[in-house]
Request: fold
Amino acid sequence: MADILPPVGATGAIFSPAPDDAKTIYNRALPTTLAPPGISNPYPYKAIGEPFEALVFIQADTLRGLKYGA
Amino acid sequence: MELEKIANESLKATAHHLAEEKYQPEDPLQSLEVQEAKIERELSQCMLLAKTRIRDGFRACVEAVEGLARLDNSIDLAALQKNVDYAFSRFETVAMAKDMCTQLMEGHSWKELLGLDDTTMLLLYRGAKTLFDTGHHPEAEAAFFFLTTIDFTQYVFWLGLGHAAFHLNNINQALNAYDMADTCQPGSIWPHIYMANCFEAQYDYEESFICLKAADQELARSQEKDETLASELKSRLQTAKPRFGS
Reply:
């Protein structure tokens, strides 16, 4: 949990009073563990505000072609 | 091949539907056909991109895990391979694939539908995170794209996608990813701060200020008090405000 990522918002530092003060705000690591699923359906399969069924089929078509080590 | 055909038919139908919605008969330069073709082209590009990223992302994750396994004996590559190959073999027939697509549209994830276990997901995530931590941002971006495709309910997957996209200067994608992270974990502070960083990178100071304000509000509501963050946010808000006129 304690590992430090490179600053995410390097460009944002100009808006903080001093780069040192900005450190904590930017240097956040990605968590090491995964959380249990917390949401039911954020409905991400949208394009231009519409359900994007085509993308789901493309995902299926691509995933079925994947193989470990291939 | 049949799934791709269905995808293309669905894409055409979506493009037609969207073009009809957007169509303005009084604009002679934008006929319905022109609109439709334009939308179809955009959606096709989006699908092609998804296809490539899923493939590249999966490969990047696996290679990174294999690298980790060379240093960490506790990583069971054989179990990972077994689970992954079992999962992807569940697309045995087109009918099964179609059925899973329907369930996906109803809100299930590929992780659930394919039976990818938590150990596998954690390992793949460790791979993606390593790519990011070691500065391999294009590979990390693909890896997190793959992971968000597999399980869109994971806050950290969207966060990783946002971080990697930000480093690649793909700010709009980063914004979308952080927005999704916020949807996955409502009440979290960090997606707002990261979105503020994105807007700053786009010189949109007003939107950035709004995001910082939202972060501040979430922090005030939060049970966990973080005095350092609170004071940093406050001073950042004070500095950000004069950047846009009002």
